[in-house]
Records
---
Amino acid sequence: MAAKTLASRLRGSRRFLSGFMSGAVLGAAGAGLMALQFFRSRDAETADGSEEKAVLEQFGFPLTGTETRCYTNHALSYDQAKRLPRWVLEHISKSKITGDADRKRCKFKPDPTIPPTFSAFNEDYVGSGWSRGHMAPAGDNKFSSKAMAETFYLSNIVPQNFDNNSGYWNRIEIYCRELTERFEDVWIVSGPLTLPQTKSDGKKTVTYQVIGEDNVAVPSHLYKVILARRSPESTEPLALGAFVVPNEAIGFQPQLTEFQVSLQDLEKLSGLVFFPQLDRTSNIRNICAVDTCKLLDFQKFTLYLNTRKIEGACSLHRLEKVMENLKNTGIEPDDYFLSCYEKKLEELTAKEKSETQTRKPS
C-alpha cells in the first residue's frame, strides 16, 4: 500500500519510471547535467575573489559539517541538525562480503570525528521504539574488522522501524550482496528521507518525530541507489536502480520494483546529485531489466535467518533449539542449511566433550 502511495505521488511527473523502462534509465541525464553545470558556473563566478567576499569571510562562514567523511569502506555526509547521515556511499565486491570479521565484536558508538554537540548517542535510541538501522550494512564488510566496526558508528545509523530493519530492508541488503555474484563492482548510496505529507485541506507539510535528548530525527523513508559494473574491462553498459522505501513494516508481498523511482525524482526529493562523475549521456541500463531485482521469499529468508542462528550457536542446546524452531515453521531445510548444521554440531560436540574432560578430577 505504501509503495502504491509513493508511486502515485511521483507518477504525476513525466519523469517517473516510464522513462526508466523506455530506455532512458537515467531520466536524470538532463537535470543532473544542468545541476553540475550550475555548480561549476557558480564556482567560476566566485573564483576571482572579490573585496566584498574577503570582508564577508573575515571571521569565517558558518560550518555545516556536511563535508565528506571517509572510512575504510564507506564515506558519508552528515546532517548535524538531524544527527543523521545525509548519504552513505559504499563499494562492495565478492571479496569484501566474505571474511572473518564478526559483528558480535562490534558495538554501536558515537563517531569520534563528529563533535559531541552534534552527535547522536546510544541513549537516544533506548526505549524509543526505533532500532539503530545501518545505512552501510555490517554484512558488507566481512573482509575487515575495522571496516565492519566503523559501520557501527552512529553517523552511519538512522532510527528505523524494527520490522523494516530486520525484514524488508535486510532483504534489499542481501540482494545487493547477491549482485556481487554477477557484477564485479557494486556501488551503493543509502540514506534517510523526510517526505512531505498532503493534509486533508490539500496543504503539504513536513513533520517528523525526534527521539532522545539529542532530538535524533526519524525519517519517513529510506532510499538506496545501486550502480553495478560487470568488470572494469567490460563494454557492457552500467546497471543502475533507485529505490525509496517507507520506514515502516513491509511484508513479503510487495516487490522491489514497486519501490523503484527514477534517479531524477530521487535527486529532486533528496536535494542530492548521485554519482556526479557518471557519464549520464552514455547507455546506462535499468538494473531491474538487466538483473532480477527479486528479493528472498519467505521460505528462503527464513532459511537464511536460521542459518545465521546456527553459525552463531554457542551450545548444543541452542543449536537444537534452532533446528526445532525451523521444523515448527514447516519449512524443509536445504542442503546448505544442513551442511552448516552438521559442521556446527561436530564443532560443539567436540567443544563440550573437551570441557567435560577438563572438569573431571585428576
Note: Residues 300-356 form one domain.
---
Amino acid sequence: MNDSRTLATAAFVLLLIALPLSAQCQQTVEVVIQNYRFEPKLVHIKVGDTVKWINKEKRTSHSVVFSAEQRVESERFFPDESWQRRFTVSGRFPYHCGPHPEMTGVVEVGGS
C-alpha cells in the first residue's frame, strides 16, 4: 500500500516538472511588417510554435493570408497592432498580405 502511494506521488511530481518544461519548449517568433515587407521573409519553426506578425508601419494596415489553406486570413491590423498563429502541423506555409499581395513570406514548420 505504501509503495503504490509513493509511486503515485513520484509520478505526480514528475508531471508537475514536465508540464512547465513542455510549455517552455514552444516559442514565439516575431515577423516585423515595415516598408511593405515581412522581415524575416522566411521563418523556420517547430510544430507547436507561434508566429507573431507585428505591424510597424506608420499609417498602413495589413493582414496575413494563407491562400493554400482555403484563404485563411487574419483580420486587418493597424500600426503597432499584431496578429499571431500557432502552427500545429509540419509543412510549408506561404502567405501574403491581403491588401498588398506583392508582400510575401513563408513559414516552414519542422518536427517538434
Note: The chain has one domain: 27-110.
